[in-house]
Amino acid sequence: MSKCSMVCILMNINQKLQLEDGAERANQKHFRILIGGLIYLTHTRLDISFSVGVVSRFMSNPSQIHCGAAKRILRYVACTLNYGIWYIHSINFKLIGFTENDWASSLDDRRNTYGNVFGLGSGAVTWNSKKQANVALSTIEAEYVAASAEACQCIWIRRMLRDLHQTQQKKIELYCDNKSAIESSKNPAFHGRAKHIELRFYFIRDLINKGELIMKFCHTEVQVADIFTKSLSNERYAYLRSLLRLSDYESRGVLEI
Question: Domain of life here (predicted)?
Fold first, then answer.
């Protein structure tokens, strides 16, 4: 792959992979070695988290199509070798988070893919892209369960910052683009479409009542966590990548998150 043709986008828009695609099986050992290296790279390259998460689902029985998708990630990395998160001096260490969910995105089991990113100071400090363990019956359930999972991550970060003498005095803002999920987290009586959700996911309500967390609405266009849940067009992908302060080190063209 050292002389591969480069690409500027990871996956074709709305591309979805599945286990039984009818293609010839690929070498499992080579595929796992490749995916292992890509997973390691996601620790610093948040822009490939979703694509790597998708192809890693097929390590037990990969096909040539899965292998081709993994190699496409390498072609993208080759095109963006100079890219990384550019951190600058900042006095505003305010922790904010974004959470997003792609409902029933998996063709094999119809489970959702959720993603989150937390920013602190001048750039993103932690991110995640993962397939949910449960099957959601509605978009509100998918968004609500994802937000509850991110609330746990939020509390962990808050406690770690306290140990580093960077205590967050104000409520931590968690941005979501689903108004129904936000209202359900605030109002216990708002249960018409969410009464079947397991009780353990209502942990987020306790955090809101205690004043530790507040959920806010953000428009889908500026929902940066969208990059962790689905394949996007080249223009939107580049835009969200810039909002996350992931840029070419040579140009250092960064935007405020």
Answer: Eukaryota
What is the DSSP-derived secondary structure letter of residue 130?
E
Over its C-alpha atoms, the chain yields an Rg (Å, rounded) of: 19
CATH topology of domain 95-228: Nucleotidyltransferase; domain 5 (3.30.420)
DSSP 26: P
**Tokens at residue 117, please?**
């990113």
Residues 19-44 have pLDDT tens digits of 888 899 999 999 999 999 999 999 99
Picking from 77-81, 231-235, 246-250, which range would have the lowest pLDDT averaged per residue?
Answer: 246-250
Compute CA distances 251 → 81, 247, 254, whole Å: 13, 8, 9
Start-to-end C-alpha separation, the chain? 34
Whole-model pTM? Answer: 0.86
Which residue do the tokens 């959702």 mark? 112
Is the CB of residue 110 less than 8 Å from the CB of residue 141?
A: no
Beta bridge partners of 84: 247
